[in-house]
Amino acid sequence: MNRRLFVLGLMLAAFAQSVTSQEPVFQRELLVGSWKVNWEKSKPEARVTASQLPSIYRQYEEQGEGFMLHTVIMVDAAQKRAWTLIGVIKYDGKEYPTYAGKSLADRLASGKQPLETVAFRVVDAYNLEWTDRTNGKLTGTGTVALSKDGKTMTDTNRAYDSDGKEISMQVLVYEKQPEDQ
């Protein structure tokens, strides 16, 4: 066999292997920005009535080195209480701490590790899968699907009880908000 053809064949095989083994690249730039849930397009948990539906807002910001800041704010239907969830996350399948409301201040002041974590994994250019845990126990799973135009995000999520049994499922459809809001 001609040595040049042999080397060329090895190079092509190595290139083909590197192309097929690469992780999918998620379109992060489409996620960056502010989002608001649209309850008319969503399918909330069956046990929640329309008068109980909270306002839910999400904010995603690039933090560099592959990290994304996730901020979720939920305001109850009466507009009297708000709940906040914050996490700085990579989409690499590893668990990252999340902080809800007062627990952020408590954890920072005490130096204790958070009880809650989330792990995100890239499925493809427009889809992520996520898993929530509290004290290592599964509490939620879901998917995030971005529309190709970046105007709609669909979060399908399931919650689990302490025995790992699914207790609820909902589909939340978010719409991207203009930057000046």
List the helices and strands and how they pair.
Elements: H1 3-20, H2 28-31, E1 33-37, E2 55-64, E3 67-75, E4 82-89, E5 92-100, H3 102-110, E6 116-124, E7 127-134, E8 137-146, E9 152-160, E10 166-176
Antiparallel strand pairs: 1-2, 1-10, 2-3, 3-4, 4-5, 5-6, 6-7, 7-8, 8-9, 9-10
Describe this protein with a few key phrases:
alpha+beta; 17% helix; 181 residues; 3 helices; single chain; ten-stranded antiparallel β-barrel; globular; 10 strands; Lipocalin
Give the gist of this structure.
The chain is of the alpha+beta class and 181 residues long. The chain has helices at 3-20, 28-31, 102-110; strands spanning 33-37, 55-64, 67-75, 82-89, 92-100, 116-124, 127-134, 137-146, 152-160, 166-176.
